[in-house]
Amino acid sequence: VVVVFFFFMFRRPPRSTLFPDTTLFRSVLIAKYVGAKDLVAVQKTIRGMLGLTIPVMLGGGILFMVLGEQIMAMYLRGGDPEMRETGIVLGRRLLLVAAVWQLGDAFQIVYRFALRATGDHKWVMWAGLGCAWGLSAPMAAIGVFVLNGDVVTVWWLWNVEIYFGAILFLRRWRGGAWRNKRLVEDDTSTLLS
How far is residue 84 CA from its own chain's centroid? Predict the structure, then answer.
């Protein structure tokens, strides 16, 4: 896990979502198990997704907090030394915020992918749009126009959307609406005619 984490960290600039590829793969397994009506395997897969995604995302957050300056220095080389230093300081502040939202992001990633895999696409789409436009956009406006903040202020306020979304998708999963979704019809006789 550590080797894979470092591969993702250093092959491109840091981003908030460190491990979507593994979650996508496991969500395919969820679709398979839902189709087979094997709810025990579905729950084991969710636990496995959380068991991998949460430690990796939290590990990334810890690295962001501890090594933020060094991470930013890797990407800001040359040029005006004063501008470089300003960029490193700003980047370190942004990585600190990204560190805070890693846990919420982990839950959002796992449960969004899982709900999509079960066929709950429309709900996930509308909930995601609602979070983005109902929370992220207003939080950004509040950060800039009310609080007279900068990009760091906006990112701090986006924690509201990230953790709200995490709770929303977790509650949807636990509510079990996905159990009634069908990706394919049980009776395939009409497909053969």
Answer: 29
In angstroms, rounded to a whole number, what is the distance separating the alpha carbons of residues 158 and 102?
A: 12
* CA-closest candidate to residue 154, choices 141, 164, 166, 165: 141
Q: How confident is the model at residue 16 (pLDDT cuts 50, 70, 90)?
A: very low
The type of residue at 53 is T
Q: What is the pLDDT of residue 179?
A: 87
Q: In angstroms, rounded to a whole number, what is the distance separating the alpha carbons of residues 128 and 119?
A: 15
CA angle 124–107–94, rounded 5-degree value: 105
Angstrom CA distances, 153 to 19, 69, 104, 141, 170, stand at: 25, 19, 18, 10, 27
> In degrees rounded to 5, what are phi and psi of residue 190?
-70, -25
Angle between helices 81-117 and 121-131 (to 10 degrees): 150
| pTM, entire model | 0.80
Rounded to 10 degrees, the C-alpha dihedral 154/160/163/169 comes to: -110
